[in-house]
Amino acid sequence: MVQAEFDQDYHAALELPSTATPNDIKKQFKKLALQYHPDRNPDKDTTAKF
């Protein structure tokens, strides 16, 4: 396991403020997961982000 992958700011990765509620985090995660999912968007850049 690569430790560097887990040393990031998850709020920034989800484009949320650090004061976001758990419900806001859940909604944003689902939104971005659908946006970058390879089955919904065949672009190679989005596949790498997913």
From TrEMBL:
InterPro entries: DjlA_DnaK_co-chaperone, DnaJ_domain, J_dom_sf
CDD domains associated with the record: DnaJ (cd06257)
Domain of life: Eukaryota
Residue ranges of every copy of the J domain listed in the record: 9-50
PROSITE patterns (UniProt xref): DNAJ_2 (PS50076)
Pfam families, per database record: DnaJ (PF00226)
SMART domains: DnaJ
Gene3D superfamilies: DnaJ domain (1.10.287.110)
PANTHER family for this protein: CO-CHAPERONE PROTEIN DJLA (PTHR24074)
Protein name per its UniProtKB record: J domain-containing protein
Originating species: Lepraria finkii
Taxonomic lineage: Eukaryota, Fungi, Dikarya, Ascomycota, Pezizomycotina
